[in-house]
Write a structure and sequence with these properties.
Oligomer: single chain
Number of strands: 19
Number of domains: 4
CATH class of the largest domain: Alpha Beta
CATH topology of the largest domain: Beta-Lactamase
Structural class: alpha+beta
Strand content: 15-25%
Distance between the termini: 77 Å
């Protein structure tokens, strides 16, 4: 095999890399600039789209949450319908956190009606109650909110509506007809420059008797304001539209509806939005509008109960192509200079390290320990080469000792590694703060327990619990007190369950418990004792700790998969957190 010098080995490749690097960067910037720029544009587009998507889903979430909450509460407590004033206070208080929640209402099967109402622009001063039974039957009047009696003085400036029967209204009739959650059509509010949408649901008692209908409605002007507030690159657009193309909100300041009709993408005066309306196909597209190319992405927003909106984002191709062309030209010259500098540096490095390496080579080839011991020190200013020389010299003295003690050291090292592996395994499955199993340890034991319960036809109970308002503990008292709370909760959970039960810190402030061969009543009883212990022995006098629990128990005859079991208990914890916290949902 032909041999080459160290100088050639370092300098020639560096010179080739300098040449090839410059050519490669040039070709890359010239040939692939289109693909790179498209990716940059798509990244900007999707990042903007993701922010809007999250905002819209968060904005619309209270509609179904409040409708479901009121439906379930009254279905389980039909006696509340005897006191609609108290229900009115409940509706008013539910609307307070949501400034654009225009209506939260309840219509009974006997024709009574009460609602929390405010103008579509979220004015606090216009938030009040209305009902059709206080002044005289079927006369809908507006009333101030009274925090004690709920129904305060009548508002003289509010119009009254005699003979108002909610059972004749579309929100009531549509919900009863569908026998479930029903979306209203998006339409302008009378007298206001805003679109609105509502969600209504019938309420049935345990015997299936219709008790009434509850509904929520939100003003969509907030979404229009939000899209217009987003800082976009010049010539970009964002829109929300229904599946038929009718606009809900846009980043432009043009009207969304006239006195009689909604504005649709397909008939929009803006040529870019009009062209987008002709391509309502989910995914990424390129549109050509009057000679200008746009990158266009359409994504569906799937709201609960079958409502689907489209979110569209369009950015001009010129924005990201011009920007990246400038970057690629500058990058080419920078990389070219770097590679030339590297080639020159390689020549100097080869000369600097070559001479001492040749000295070492001659000493090793001599096959003489004395010649190796005679290597001058320091051999080189390069630390590694000098260390290599000293190492060779030291090797001549230690070689015989190494051979004699090799077997003993191998045995000692093997034993040490075994102990370290066992310790690492324990550490990898244990939560350092609480001493409980961590997520990894829990997964290993959970699968074993689940399979054992199936094989032996035994029941298995799964509990997922979460410390309520734990972020407040960290923010108010500090992370040290937060850690103390986690340790205390872990100790209480271990105290009230059997030694063979699995108790793990599932993540953050969440804990997971698995009990094989334990009934639901026993599990729930132990959880109540956990709650009582935390009340009697608070971790901090100014901030009591409470837990929310989700519990799922199956007997030997119930066949759930591991994933279904975890999803079910997670859903119950979510229900506990969203219905007041500090409770057990089983």
């Amino acid at each position: 095999m032909k041999q080459i010098s160290l100088w050639g080995l370092i300098v020639v490749p560096f010179a080739l890399l300098a040449t090839l690097g410059g050519v490669t960067v040039y070709l890359f910037s010239t040939v692939t600039i289109s693909n790179v720029s498209d990716n940059v544009g798509l990244h900007y587009l999707k990042e903007t789209e993701s922010r809007v998507y999250d905002h819209v889903t968060d904005f619309m979430a209270p509609l179904n949450v409040l409708a479901e909450l009121n439906r379930d509460a009254i279905a389980h407590h039909p006696e509340w319908l005897e006191d609609l004033d108290t229900i009115g206070g409940r509706l008013y208080e539910q609307a307070v956190p949501y400034p654009y929640m225009t209506f939260i209402s309840l219509a009974t099967a006997d024709g009574r009606y009460i609602n929390s109402t405010r103008d579509p622009f979220g004015s606090r001063g216009d938030h009040h109650l209305a009902n059709n039974y206080t002044v005289e039957p079927r006369s809908l009047e507006g009333f101030e909110y009274d925090p004690i009696q709920y129904i305060g003085p009548r508002i003289a400036s509010e119009p009254s509506y005699p003979n108002y029967d909610p059972r004749t209204r579309p929100f009531y009739q549509d919900a009863v007809k569908q026998q479930g959650m029903t979306w209203s059509s998006i339409s302008p509010y009378f007298g206001y420059q805003s679109l609105g949408v509502g969600l209504s649901t019938p309420i049935y008692d345990e015997q299936g008797t219709l008790l009434g209908v509850t509904a929520t409605s939100v003003a969509l002007v907030a979404l229009d304001k939000y899209l217009q507030s987003i800082e976009l690159v010049d010539g970009s657009y964002i829109f929300l539209a229904e599946r038929n193309g009718d606009l809900i909100a846009t980043s432009s300041d043009e009207a969304l509806f006239s006195e009689t009709d909604r504005v649709s993408l397909g008939s929009h005066s803006n040529s870019v939005l009009k062209r987008a309306g002709e391509a309502l196909i989910e995914g990424s597209h390129q549109l050509n509008v009057n000679g200008e190319r746009f990158l266009y992405h359409l994504r569906p927003i799937e709201l609960p109960y079958g409502q689907v909106w489209y979110l569209g984002v369009l950015i001009p191709e010129s924005y990201y192509r011009n920007m990246l062309t400038e970057y690629s030209t500058a990058l080419f010259f920078i990389v070219l200079v770097i590679f030339i500098s590297i080639a020159l540096a390689g020549s100097l490095i080869a000369r600097f390290i070559g001479k001492p390496i040749l000295q070492l080579n001659d000493a090793v080839k001599s096959n003489s320990l004395e010649r190796i011991r005679a290597i001058p020190q320091p051999l080189s200013h390069v630390y590694e080469i000098n260390s290599l020389g000293r190492g060779l010299q030291g090797m001549t003295y230690k070689l015989s000792d190494i051979m004699q003690n090799l077997e003993q050291k191998v045995a000692q090292r093997t034993s040490h590694l075994k102990n370290e592996n066992e310790e690492l395994l324990e550490q990898s499955t244990t939560d350092e703060l609480t001493g409980l199993y961590n997520r990894r340890g829990f997964n290993l034991l959970f699968e074993q327990a689940f399979e054992l319960a199936k094989q032996q036809n035994k029941s298995i109970c799964t509990v997922l619990c979460d410390i309520d308002h734990f972020k407040r503990v960290n923010d108010t008292l500090g992370h040290v007190e937060g850690d103390k709370a986690l340790i205390a909760v872990a100790a209480v959970l271990k105290q009230h369950f059997r030694p063979n039960d699995i108790v793990a810190r599932y993540g953050g402030e969440e804990f997971m418990l698995i009990m094989v061969d334990m009934g639901k009543d026993d599990a729930v009883s132990r959880l109540h004792k956990v709650r009582q212990t935390l009340i009697k022995q608070p971790t901090h006098k100014d901030f009591p700790i409470t837990l929310s629990f989700g519990v799922t128990c199956t007997d030997g005859s119930t066949h759930l998969t591991l994933e279904e079991l975890v999803n079910d208990v997670d859903a119950k914890l979510y229900q506990a957190k969203n219905t007041g916290r500090d409770k057990i949902v089983d």
